[in-house]
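User: For my dataset I need records formatted as: sequence, then structure tokens, nothing else. Please produce one.
Assistant:
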Amino acid sequence: MTIRRNRVFTDLLRGTYGTIWGNWGLNPSIKPGAVGIIDGDSGDFKLVADALPGIEVSKSLQSRKWDFKSSGVTCRSVSAKGQGLILDPSTGVEVKPEAALEWTFDKENALTSEFAISGEHSICNLGVLDDQYEWLLAQARKVNMATSAGISEGFGVVTSVIYANSGLNAVSKKSKASFTVAGSASGLNRLLGEEGISGNGKASYLFTSNSSEVETHTLPAKSGEVATEPLPVAYYFASFAGSRVLIPSWIGKIGVLNLHVDSKASSLTTYVTKVTLAYQTPSGPVEHSSTVIGGSSASFGDIPLTATEMVLTAEFVNIGANTRKSLKWNTPATEWLGGTRTVNLTGTWPGAPEMTEVKN
């Protein structure tokens, strides 16, 4: 079975950054404004055009450490004795390493990602994607990523990129794998961002043992080298769906929208609630209704991505006048991360009932 490293890496990152995509192989073509295709299954990016016309990019400098590990991955300081020589990139002279770090992986395919982050570069105004829609549509057609309805999901634009000055991605090829990196103490600290990215000296390292047990992507690429420019570690991506509907934080194929109305969030929910979902589509208005008994739920599925001006109304049945609550989304395909949304109904009669949107 083929291991899709970038997909696994992306899933690891999304525990912290919900809408990010990982760049496992440090692909340098990923930059703000780059136009291409993301394979949602593998997480890989394929470049179609270097840059979207008319973009402006802002650059935010951030000196910080980037550190993500699968469970069972550890890093510790070990003795550098007997580790050979390392080329000091500042002087070009071979010297004995004074420090060493050892990574161990309990399981096969466990990951670690450690970098000294230099900053984030972003497109200033996402409105340019709509302005350049016809140009993007022409590019999409060249690579069979468009239909009669418009651009297909997965084709789009890199909107923001996190860059690193130095560091490494590593994955174990077998269980109980390990590898060691040695160098000067200051060089290793700067390599992994332990002391930020400022100060004298250069990030440097030397693989000293068991490097065959792991797959690595390092910056700088080789022992004794100094990175000449930052490389992208991760990025954000915008795509389109349902004709010209922009999904500014695309995290995978949506297809249709789904709304779940749940009165099970609290065991004390006792109201019977009449819920109505209404929205506009290019072919006209649509309305759906359902009754939710306390402790049950209802789902509205197969909502088209082109749905707009959506209103969910809940009418809590009461003795006397019923209580009405409502929520509105102008463009749910843009607002609902991943194309799904949950709304909780709570309240114990005769107390005041509530309708609460649960955001991803």
